[in-house]
Amino acid sequence: xxxxxxxxxxxxxxxxxxxxxxxxxxxxxxxxxxxxxxxxxxxxxxxxxxxxxxxxxxxxxxxxxxxxxxxxxxxxxxxxxxxxxxxxxxxxxxxxxxxxxxxxxxx
Amino acid sequence: xxxxxxxxxxxxxxxxxxxxxxxxxxxxxxxxxxxxxxxxxxxxxxxxxxxxxxxxxxxxxxxxxxxxxxxxxxxxxxxxxxxxxxxxxxxxxxxxxxxxxxxxxxxxxxxxxxxxxxxxxxx
Lengths: 107, 123
Description:
A: mainly beta, B: mainly beta, seven-stranded mixed β-sheet, globular
């Protein structure tokens, strides 16, 4: 099973600033990597897939990069609605696996 | 409008069974893979399994933690996916989500999700 490790566990950033979230895979997942956003009590929302493709309706301030074992989600200018928990997920090998999540909180 | 609604959750004793349903509308259900993901209280997301569309063989896979106890199925005529959970354990306590694949030929990622249904396994 591929282990996905996200860092940091919690990230404190001020509105309007840039946030950079990291995700590392225990073995290569090629570009088969997605990012989800989750607010408390809500279902996950797909943000990014195949490492860098924004899902429908996702603002351009969200971008993804990386390949192989190292990936990054960048939010260029944080809005109030962006403070949530973010999960990466690999879908290169079954069982597909999520990272443990990064909580993005207001500084 | 695409909608997914889970139902069937509740309180159940260890060792007992429960069946969850994921009723959908707004898209051609039979064309898409459906997945189940769960989230224990205060914890992260974990895969339960998936079922592909019949066009892609109807393949079913399970996470190791539920294999042999859970069964995923689908009824395309009812636009509904099911999760039959047997021999439930306390560690199966979670919110269970169903979701649709973003593309018909893929299992994941998943762009439309239900609101989740809470399953509590406790004596």
